[in-house]
Specification:
The complex is a heterodimer of chains A (about 130) and B (about 150). Chain A is mainly beta and about 130 residues long. Chain A has strands at about 10, 25-30, 30-35, 40-45, 55-60, 60-65, 75-80, 85-95, 105-110, 110-115. The chains are: A mainly beta (about 130), B mainly beta (about 150).
Chain lengths: ~130, ~150
């Protein structure tokens, strides 16, 4: 179990060069992507983010998550500093089976959950076999 | 990891920080590399101090207060967190990066603390523990009397 885990945040290196309105460090949030019969669920760890700082965009088949994290403890003398505080950013390619208009997002305890419903045509359909 | 070995003003640590900073500038990523002593599966912590208290902060996204276990014994602070595995029926995982399971971290505190007055606050997935220093560890201002 412990082998699957990582305490260190990875930098947002795979992020495409998008324009950012403020300089600073961006982190790549850890995500779970779960596919169910009727929807895809994306869960992203964005500790420190508040609901009004969440920016979820869909553009040109790319879903982007930007979670603003207000700076904290900037003027303190760190004895140990193992992680940095900064915004979270990550992009995903989303294929055409997702009903973009019905994407919804919620934030609870630093976890952002996105629901990406599938369009009707993409849902699995059981074909009855005639005898 | 033991706090007393973490001496940020040690020349070697300074050199290392400087090299890390230079390296990250060249490579374009601005993240601060993890400090020494960090083991996979251990939650990363930030620790700082003021005159009155020590502060320990860690990121605990998705955790409720009953999944956290914090205790202070002598000069040791131990933090245990448990993030339960949620098994979803009839679902396929495409990515599974968010850690699940139990994680613990024990920190040796650099100064004595008042264990009864320790407070912990959980906000937006960030846990901040405030450990007020024991009376004898607080700096005492000495008045200079002029004659």
């Amino acid at each position: 179990m412990a082998d699957d885990t990582q305490a260190v945040k990875t930098p947002a290196s795979e992020v495409a060069p998008a324009e950012h309105t403020r300089s600073g460090t961006y982190y790549r949030p850890n995500v779970d992507i779960v596919e169910k019969a009727d929807e895809l669920i994306v869960r992203a760890d964005v500790p420190g983010a508040t609901a009004d700082g969440i920016d979820v965009k869909f553009e040109d088949g790319t879903l982007s998550i930007h979670a603003k994290v207000p700076p904290r403890n900037q003027d303190v003398d760190f004895l140990v500093r193992e992680y940095g505080v900064g915004d979270f950013y990550r992009e995903f390619r989303v294929n055409e089976t997702v009903d973009v208009a019905r994407i919804s997002a919620e934030l609870a305890d630093g976890v952002l959950t996105l629901h990406l419903p599938k369009i009707e045509a993409a849902k699995p359909r059981k074909i009855p076999v005639k005898t | 990891m033991v706090l007393r070995y973490m001496n940020p003003s040690h020349p070697v640590q300074q050199l290392r920080r400087e090299m890390d900073r230079l390296w990250s500038q060249v490579m374009g990523d601005q993240i601060e590399p993890p400090w020494t002593g960090l083991v996979r599966g251990q939650p990363a912590v930030n620790v700082w101090e003021t005159e009155e208290a020590l502060f320990v902060e860690l990121e605990t996204p998705g955790l409720k207060s009953d999944q956290l276990d914090i205790s202070v014994a002598g000069d040791q602070l131990s933090i245990r967190v448990h993030r339960p595995e949620v098994e979803e029926q009839g679902a396929t995982y495409h990515r599974r990066e968010r850690p699940v399971g139990s994680f613990s971290r024990v920190l040796r505190l650099p100064s004595p603390v008042d264990a009864d007055a320790v407070e912990a606050e959980l906000q937006n997935g960030v846990l901040c523990i405030k450990l007020p220093k024991a009376k004898e560890a607080r700096p005492r201002k000495i008045q200079v009397v002029g004659k």
